[in-house]
Amino acid sequence: MADQTLPIPGSLTAKPSRDAALLEWLHSWVVTVDHKKLGILYVVYAIFFLLVAGAEALAMRIQLAIPNNHFVGPETYNELFTMHGTTMVFLVGMTFIFGFGNYLVPLMIGARDMAFPRLNAFSFWMTAFGGLLLYFSFIGGFGLYGMGSAPDVGWWAYAPLTAKAFSPGHNTDYWALSLIVMGFGTLGAAINTLATAFSMRCRGMTLFRMPLFVWLMVVTSGLTLITITPLTAAQIMLLIDRYLGGHFFDTQAGGSATVWMHFFWIFGHPEVYVLILPAFGIASEVIPVFSRKAIFGYPAMVAASVGIAFVSVSVWAHHMFTIGMTSVSNAFFVLSTMMVGIPTGIKIFNWIATMWGGRIRFAPPMLFCTAFVFQFLMAGLTGIMLSVAPWNWQLHNSYFVIAHFHYTLTGSFVFCIFAAIYYWYPKATGRMLSESLGKWHFWLFFVGFHLTFDTMHFVGILGMPRSIYTYEADRGWNALNMIISAGGLIQGIAVLIFAWNLIDSYLHGKEAGNDPWDAWTLEWSTPSPPPAYNFAVDPEVRSRRPLWDIKHPVDPDWKYEQ
Amino acid sequence: MQPGRSLSSSRSRLCSVALLCLCAVPVLAEGAQSTPSILAPASTPAHEIYNLSLFVLLITGSIFAVVGGLLAYVVVKFRARGPDAEHEPPQIYGSTQVELAWTVIPVLIVVVLFLTTARIIFAIQDAPEPKSALEVTVIGHQFWWEFRYPKLNIVTANELHIPASTHEAPEPTYLHLLSADVDHSFWVPQLAGKTDLIPNHPNDMWLDPHEPGLYVGQCAQFCGIEHAKMLIRVYVDTPEQFDAWGKNQQRLAVDDPAAVAGRQVFETQACVNCHTIVGTPAHGTFGPDLTHLMSRATIAAGAATNTRDNLRAWIQNPGTFKPGALMPAMQLSDQQIDELVAYLSTLH
Prior knowledge:
The complex is a heterodimer of chains A (562) and B (348).
Chain A: H1 18-30, H2 35-64, H3 74-108, H4 117-136, H5 171-199, H6 212-243, H7 257-291, H8 298-312, H9 327-355, H10 364-387, H11 389-395, H12 399-429, H13 435-461, H14 478-508, H15 546-551
Helix pairs in contact in A: 2-3, 2-4, 2-14, 3-4, 3-5, 3-7, 3-12, 4-5, 5-6, 6-7, 6-8, 7-8, 7-9, 7-10, 7-12, 8-9, 9-10, 10-12, 10-13, 12-13, 13-14
Chain B: H1 10-29, H2 44-77, H3 96-125, E1 134-141, E2 144-149, E3 154-157, E4 159-163, E5 173-179, E6 184-186, E7 195-197, E8 203-207, E9 213-218, E10 231-237, H4 239-250, H5 260-268, H6 271-274, E11 298-299, E12 304-305, H7 308-316, H8 334-344
Parallel strand pairs in B: 1-5, 4-10
Antiparallel strand pairs in B: 1-2, 2-3, 5-8, 6-7, 9-10, 11-12
Helix pairs in contact in B: 1-2, 2-3, 5-8, 7-8
C-alpha cells in the first residue's frame, strides 16, 4: 500500500498527547473553511450572545419591577438597553440566520460547500471580531469602573445624541466601529449565499424546486445587500462627523437629525424582514414535515416572500410618523405599511392550509412553529394598529411598540430559531435533543413570553414610554411591570433548560440516524453529522421533495407538482 | 371635529369597555393614581385617535378571531392520534382559487383601513389654526421643558398652563415645538398624540382640552441619561384661573427684603449664568426660569415635589433626585443653602 507509513523506529507511531489532540481540534475550527463547521460556529456564537443579551434584559426587568428602583443607575440602564438591542439584532439574529444558511443551503441544494469557502470563513471571523469589539467596550475606555464605555445611545442611535457634544468619550465609537466591522462580514455572507444558491444547485434542482428555506435565504441575502449598505454609509458619516469635522448629523452646525433617521430606518425596517424571512423559511420546512403534507401553495409562498422584500424597502418612515412629516407623506407610509399585511397574510394562510388535513406530530420543533404562527398573527395585527398613523402618534415609543416588535423578534424569530435547533441538531451532531426537556423549555418559554409581552401592550396603552430607567409610582404601571418582570424570569429559566439540553444531549443523547423526522429534503439523505464532502455522489432531484419520491416510488411528487 | 366621533358604534363601545376594564384592574388596585392612559381622551385630537383606534381594533380583532380560530381548530382537529398515524395523509399541493381569495380579501381590508386612517390624519394634522388659539413655544432641553407664551410675555418651565376650550368659546392651544439640544418628544396621552422636538426641524401640534384638571405625560424620545425624569404636567385651567395665573406670571419677581441674603448668594454665585429671575441681574437661559418658581408644584422636571426640603437637597446635590442632571452641585455652605432656599421660597 502506497499510503502506509514506513516503520521509522521510535517516531511517528506514538499517539499525540491529550493536550496536543485538543489543540489540533481547536485549530481545525479556527482554520476551517467547511460550511458546516462555520455554520456551527455561527450558531454557537449566537447562542452565547443570546444568553448574554438575555441576561441584560433580565437586569433591566429587575430594575423596572418596582418604581423608583435602584438596582442599576440611569447610565448603566441606558447601556443595558442599547447593548441588548444591538446584540440581539446583530450578534444573535444575523448570526443565527447566516449560521443556519451556511449549514443548510449547500446541503439542501445538493452542493459540497458554499460558492466561496474562504470568503465564508472571512465573513464569520469579521462578524465574530465585530462582536468582540462591541463587548470590549465594557472594559475599554474607563472600564472596570462600572460599565466602561459601553454604547448608551439606543440601538437606533438618533442624532444629535451621538454627536461629540452630547456623547463624549468612546461609547458611540465602539457602537459605530463594531457595526461597520460586522457589516462587512454580513455582506460577505449574503453575497456567498446568493452565489451558492444561484450557481451550485445539483442536477434537476431548478429554482422552483429549491426548498423554501433556501428561497428565503436568497431573498434575505438580497435584502441584506440593500440594507446593510446604507447603515455602513451612515456609520462612516457619523464617524466623519465625530472625528473629521463633518456636519452630516451635527445639528449645532446646521446638520440634520432627520437625515440620520432616514438612513437608519431604510436599514432598520428591512432589517426586521432580513431576520424574519429565514424564520419563515424554517417554519416552511418544519410545518410540512410534522403535518406530513407538502407545503400548500409553494409558488404563492415564493411570490409572497419576494413581495415582502420589495414592499419592505418602501415602509421605513413608519418609524417616523411623529417627526412632523407632511400629512401626504404620512398617508403614503400608512398605505405602504398596510400593504405588507397582504403577503404576510398569504403566508399565514398557507401554513394553516398545510396543517389542514394533516396528521400533526407535536414534537418540540412543531410546538415552536405552531406557537410562531399564532404569535406572528398577533404581531401582524398589532403591526396594522401601529401603521395607523394617528394611533401611532400615541403608541410610538411606548411599551406597546416594545411588545409589538418582541412579538416579531422573540415570539416569531426566536421561536423559529428554537424550532430549527430542535429540528436540525440531530443532523449536525448525530444525537437527538431530549424531547421531555424540549417540552419543558417550550411551555415555560411560551408562558413566560406571554406574561411578559402581552402585558407590555397594556402598560404601553397606559402611557409608559420606552427607554426609561425608572418611573413614577402613581402612574398605575406598578402591578403590570411586576408581571412583565416575572414573565422575563420564567423565560430566563426556560432558556437555561435549553442550554442544558444542548450540552447534555450532545454527550448522552439518543443516536439520531440519518433521518429521524422522516423528512423530505436532501440534507436528510446524508449521514448525521454529514461528512466534509456532504454527498459521496452528486444527487439528482426531480421534485421539491426528493426524499418523498424515494420513499413513495409509486406516488412521487413530480407527477403532481405544477 | 366630528368625523372621528361618527365611527363609534355600540359594538366599538363594548370593545372599549372591555379594554378599559383590562387596563383598569391594576390601576384600581393601586389607589390614588394619575394614569396617562390613551383610553381616557380629554381633547379633540386624542378623542379622534381613540375613536379611530376602536374601529381598527374591531377589524383586527375580527381577523384575530377568524384566523386564530382556524389555527386552534387545525391544531385540535388534525393532531396525530392512535394507530392511524402510520399512514401519510393525502397530499395537497395548493389551489389557485383559494390563494386568490385570501389575497383579495386582505386587499379590501387594507383599502378600508387606509381610507379611514387618511381621513383622520388630515383632520388632525391639517386642522386650520383659529384666531382665538393660544400659542405656546415648547423648547426641549436635556431633561426639562421650557414653555414660552410669546403673546402673553410669559416664560415658565415643566408645568404647562392652558385654558380649557369649550364649544361656545373654543380656545385651542397650538404648540410650536423646538429643541435646544437633542431630540425629545412631547407626549401627554390624554390630550394628543406625541410630536417630536428636533433641533433645526420645528414642529407643531394642537390640543383643546374641555375638562379643567391636571394631565401628566413625559418625554417619549430617548434624550440621554435622565430621559426618564423629563416629566410634563399640563394644568388645564378655567378661563378665570388661567387669567389669574397669567397675571401673576407676568409680574416681576417678588423682592422680599427678608430674603436679601439668599438673593445675594444667588446673584454672586454661578446661578445667574443659567437661570433667569426677571427683575434681577439673573438672565441665564440654560436652565429653567425661576421668576415664579413657587407657582410650580414640582422641581427638576417633575422629579420631586416643590418643598423646602427637596429644594435644599436638590441645590446641595442635584444627583439626589436626578443623577446625570446638568445642574452642578455648587459646593455651597449649609448657611448659604439655607439663605438660598429662603430666597427661592419667596418667588411666588
